[in-house]
Design a protein that fits this description.
The complex is a heterodimer of chains A (424) and B (530).
Chain A lengths: L5 E2 L7 E5 L12 H7 L3 E7 L1 H11 L9 E5 L2 H5 L1 H18 L5 E6 L1 H5 L4 H12 L3 E6 L9 H10 L13 E5 L4 H14 L4 E4 L14 E5 L5 H9 L3 E2 L7 H15 L4 H26 L3 E4 L6 H12 L2 E7 L8 H6 L5 E5 L2 H11 L3 E4 L1 H9 L4 E3 L2 H4 L8 H17 L3
Parallel strand pairs in A: 2-13, 3-4, 3-5, 5-6, 7-8, 7-9, 9-10, 11-12, 11-14, 12-13, 14-15
Antiparallel strand pairs in A: 1-2
Helix pairs in contact in A: 7-9, 8-11, 10-11, 10-12, 11-17
Chain B lengths: L1 E3 L7 H11 L3 E6 L8 H7 L8 E3 L4 H5 L2 H16 L3 E6 L1 H6 L3 H8 L5 E3 L9 H16 L16 E5 L8 H15 L2 E6 L5 H4 L7 E4 L2 H15 L10 H16 L4 H4 L6 H6 L10 E6 L1 H14 L3 E7 L5 H10 L5 E2 L3 H11 L3 E4 L1 H10 L3 E3 L18 H30 L22 H9 L20 E2 L1 H9 L2 H17 L4 E2 L1 H12 L1
Parallel strand pairs in B: 2-3, 2-4, 4-5, 6-7, 6-8, 9-10, 9-12, 10-11, 12-13, 14-15
Helix pairs in contact in B: 1-7, 4-6, 7-10, 8-18, 11-14, 11-18, 14-15, 16-17, 18-21, 20-22, 21-22
Classes of the chains: A alpha/beta (424), B alpha/beta (530).
């Protein structure tokens, strides 16, 4: 705990530090809350403890009441007594579940800290159950806190899908795959933009339905829509697909860079690219302009949460003129974020990992104008007079692409506006 | 393994956090994997606390498992002690750390800190939140209240002195119950020594012994500690929970007798508005309304009594998710002539509600949603609750003001129910159907009948996801109405017409009558009018 900061060799123009100690982050199980909305016929069964069930209940809020497609098989003492029993118990629970929800086509067994620690082999269980429950497919991944932080749960889930994706013929014409769960409305906007550039064959991972997952092969070029997809990218590479390095589609500049990577790979002419993106860029500029006044020169501090911090910081600094005090991230994938790091202002202090109390001390000392942090920290910091933007909203709200650039800025502006409005 | 979608209680370490967060000068070091810090947001968001809970987590990860998690734990304890300088610490393991079998108590002891460090054994795979809170409070009291001693006699002329035990962080209305009970004790002339855990320091727990007796507000969290204090210091404790007018009056009598004083000043005082409100003729329609009650044992028992004896409802269902107090709930259910429902599976509760077909559901956040789905009025009377049940306004459940709050809470959804019922009946009426606008606007419709759909969509709260259509409770096929009977029915005033229709159909169904005639209508009226 609270080990001294380790100074790393410089990485791009940023000042990168690593920190160890207490972390205030969600575990990967939380990803279920948005993934189950995206894949409409999948069910997520966490194999874990009462803590896991309580976590998802707390994170899912009112969603829990809408017959959601997730649940927890709570391990009890009898399961801990002998592992053979645990497997039988799991089969019984899953069979009952599938009987109750015949609409389910894809079942994820989601590993947790307890199931990992007792080494309950969920991959074998998934194989066994896949055979028994066909045509329902059963896959597994781990969302445990010991292995995954928040959005890494989505990475683990998508990586589990990849080996199962249909194989694209060797002779297929090149196709574009967009990787990372996006709001449906954002997907549709991107489809229209790609079509305008003449890229017709665009697929999304995850697809909205289990039986419509995209095929993948040597001619697949993929764009990461999210910065936290390390394992998914590796699994796609193993299937022969090829990643297109790009910035992430947050803000107008990020979106343009992201689209341009596809345009270059698919031989879209500069004129066609300009024409396809012109209107979107203009609209984003119009939407961003009023927010620039409010955020320009404001000092922003990011606590680590989702790995979206670096692209968000780049957006705030470059498109809205904010100053970056510290950019915390739970994990920094230097390869995937190379384009982002390049765009960050020189000398930006990026912290990978966390020592919570030390980081709070730094935040208090700096007194930033806006602190981006989780819900466990937001109210305590507000009570100390610091404006906060709670970070989870950035995952649940459509924020990518040109049409959402203004909304994204608005999310950061709102707390400042509110503070200015309140007289008591 | 148990398939779980909704859980009424968190794991036991959440209970320990509720005690630690309630107190000051105490720090909890929890051996737990990364991610378990989610629990902080229950306190900062639902209860809107303005500071982080006093909890340090080790947040170990997979790479730490290969190394020395025990060392990590020791570092966390040392660092927390150095930074927060607490008067005492509690240490323990969450469910995952329980499996890796580091020994938090032993490891902390080896550090030889200059403050009391109390180890907690909270079996995460057997027990739950309330048990965790109770056990933590008991362990704290045991460790900090001092060695057993007989209680010294009170000096003559000294005010009687009591402790108030039970309120915690994240407790349903604990904040305001405490204000209300303090006020009550003050008007009896009883002084309060220590309130714990809420607002107490470890040092305060060392003064518990000075009181003459203990007031136990929430047996779920405080009965074990009160038992211990009785054994060690001869302090008796209250058995009555002051919920409702009757509960409060019995509580006042019990407290007065423990203090050796006269309860009259309070019992003869202004008391609550509930008795008059409940007697006023406006409340007549509440008579024998069927009510289903579910929650923690303390609130379920207390509020079932209020419902039956103070509002004149009929309790048709009573249950709890807390097995620790199943016996008490069973006994109370027997008083109402029903069998208690002891379960932590919300599907069982939903099935029981369907079967009992109540007109009002009193329960937790979950019953609120079940009731919404079934289209039954509902009020929340127990944890677990969402943020809206940690209100800004004064809203106790206990004492005389608590009874006032309860009257409003239990009756408002029914008033709305009655309004809705009347509106439904208005809709059938030729002068009041959806297409007719208000008379002061000339009776012209401001929209087409199709706007009904829009209106319904508008009324639904925007932030709640769509819930599946309510599943109708019932039924065998209703008998057909003869045209004459139908015509006769229309002569009955609209506000009782629905009731008449239902009664007649029930009557016909029970007698297997294929056709409802005018005769059947009046036979049914006579039958139900008995």
């Amino acid at each position: 705990m609270n080990a001294p900061l380790l100074h790393q060799p410089p990485c791009g123009g940023i000042e990168l530090r690593q920190e160890q100690g207490q972390r205030a982050v969600f575990c990967g199980l939380t990803g279920i809350v948005w993934l189950h909305r995206k894949i409409q016929d999948a069910f997520f069964l966490v194999v874990g403890s009462r803590t896991c069930a309580h976590l998802i209940q707390s994170a899912a809020g009112v969603m829990i009441f809408a017959e959601p497609r997730f649940a927890t098989a709570i391990i009890d003492e009898r399961d801990l007594a002998g592992l053979a029993d645990a497997n039988e118990e799991l089969d019984r629970v899953v069979t009952r579940l599938i009987e109750r929800r015949p609409d389910i086509k894809l079942l994820f067994l989601v590993g947790s800290c307890p199931s990992e620690v007792i080494k309950l082999d969920l991959s074998r269980a998934a194989q066994r159950l896949s055979g028994r429950l066909a045509p329902v497919r059963v896959l597994n991944y781990s969302g445990s806190g010991i292995e995954t932080t928040f959005t890494q749960g989505e990475d683990a889930c998508l990586a589990a899908l990849v080996p199962d994706l249909p194989r694209e013929a060797e002779t297929a014409v090149p196709s574009l795959l967009v990787v990372g769960a996006l709001a449906d409305v954002v997907e549709d906007q991107f489809l229209r933009l790609f079509a305008a550039m003449g890229i017709a064959d665009v697929r999304f991972l995850p697809a909205r339905r289990a039986n419509a997952m995209p095929a993948v092969g040597r001619n697949t070029r993929y764009l990461l829509a999210q910065p936290f997809l390390t394992d998914t990218a590796r699994a796609l590479d193993e299937r022969g697909a090829c990643r297109l390095p790009a910035s992430f589609p947050l803000g107008a500049e990020g979106t343009t860079g992201w689209l341009r990577a596809a345009a270059e790979a698919f031989g879209v002419s500069e004129a066609a690219f300009e024409q396809a993106t012109e209107a979107g860029r203009a609209r984003a500029e119009t939407a961003l302009a009023p927010h620039r006044e409010r955020l320009g020169g404001k000092r922003v501090f990011f606590f680590p949460d989702s790995q979206l911090e670096v692209p968000l910081a780049r957006f705030l600094a470059r498109e809205l003129g904010a100053d970056l005090v510290e950019v915390g991230t739970p994990y920094l994938h230097r390869g995937h974020l190379a384009a982002e790091i390049e765009l960050l202002p020189k000398g930006t202090r990026v912290t990978e990992g966390q020592s919570l109390d030390d980081q709070m001390d730094r935040c208090r000392a700096e007194r930033p104008d806006l602190t981006v942090c989780g819900l466990g920290l937001a109210n305590p910091l507000e009570a100390e007079g610091l404006s906060t933007k709670w970070s989870i909203e950035l995952l649940f709200t459509p924020v990518q692409g040109y049409e959402q650039a203004g909304d994204l800025a608005e999310l950061f502006v709102r707390p400042l506006r509110r503070r200015a409005l309140l007289e008591v | 393994m148990q398939l779980t979608l909704w859980t009424y209680e968190g794991p036991p370490h959440i209970g320990a956090m509720r005690v630690a967060t309630a107190m000051s000068g105490l720090h909890y070091v929890l051996h737990a994997p990364q991610g378990d810090t989610y629990a902080d947001l229950l306190f900062t968001m639902i209860e809107r606390r303005d500071a982080r809970p006093p909890v340090t987590y080790t947040t170990f990860r997979a790479q730490d498992l290969g190394r020395d998690t025990a060392e990590l734990f020791k570092q966390a304890v040392s660092a927390a002690h150095a930074r927060f300088q607490p008067q005492a610490m509690i240490v323990g393991a969450s469910c995952t750390a329980e499996l890796i079998q580091d020994d938090p108590g032993g490891l902390a002891k080896a550090l030889d800190l200059p403050i009391p460090v109390i180890p907690l054994e909270l079996p995460a795979y057997q027990k739950k939140e309330n048990w965790g809170a109770s056990e933590t409070f008991y362990r704290l009291v045991r460790a900090l209240a001092g060695p057993p001693a007989p209680h010294p006699a009170r000096e003559p002329g000294q005010r009687p002195l009591c402790n108030i035990l039970g309120p915690t962080a994240l407790g349903f209305r604990h904040r305001d119950d405490l204000i209300e009970i303090r006020r009550l004790l003050d008007s009896l002339g009883i002084a309060v020594n220590v309130v714990a855990p809420l607002g107490a320091t470890p040092a305060d727990l060392g003064r518990l012994r000075e009181a003459d007796f203990n007031v136990v507000l929430y047996p779920e969290t405080a009965r074990s500690a009160a038992d211990y204090l009785k054994k060690s210091f001869g302090q008796p404790f209250t058995q009555t929970v002051p919920i409702g007018v009757g509960g409060t009056r019995r509580f006042v009598e019990e407290v007065a007798s423990l203090a050796g004083i006269d309860p009259a000043p309070v019992l003869d005082g202004p008391g609550s508005r509930l008795p008059w409100y409940s007697r006023s003729v406006d409340s007549t329609y509440l008579t024998a309304k069927r009510v289903f009650v579910f929650g923690d044992a303390t609130h379920a028992i207390g509020i079932a009594r209020v419902a039956a004896k103070e509002l004149g409802f009929t309790v048709v269902g009573l249950g709890t998710y807390g097995r620790e107090f199943a016996r008490e709930v069973r006994a109370e259910a027997a008083e109402h002539g029903i069998e208690a429902l002891i379960t932590d599976d919300y599907l069982d509760v939903e099935a029981a509600i369907r079967a009992a077909a109540p007109e009002l559901v009193l329960g937790t956040q979950m019953e609120r949603h079940v009731a919404k789905r079934l289209g039954i009025p509902c009020a929340v009377i127990s944890a677990p609750v969402h943020v809206q049940d940690f209100p800004a306004r004064y809203a106790p459940q206990m004492g005389f003001e608590g009874a006032n709050v309860l009257f409003d809470t239990l009756v408002h959804p029914l008033m709305m129910g009655l309004e809705e019922h009347l509106l439904g009946m208005f809709r059938e009426d030729p002068e009041f159907h959806d297409g007719v606008g208000p008379s002061h606007l000339g009776g012209k419709s401001y929209g087409t009948p199709a706007d009904g759909a829009f209106e319904a969509a508008e009324r639904a709260p925007a932030d709640t996801p769509p819930t599946p259509a309510p599943v109708p409770i019932l039924l065998d096929r209703a008998a057909a109405w003869s045209p004459e009977a139908e015509k006769e029915l229309k002569k009955i005033p609209f506000f009782v017409r629905g009731k008449a229709r239902t009664n007649t159909e029930t009557f016909a169904r029970e007698r297997h009558l294929p056709l409802i005639t005018v005769e059947t209508l009046y036979d049914a009226k006579a039958h139900f009018g008995r």
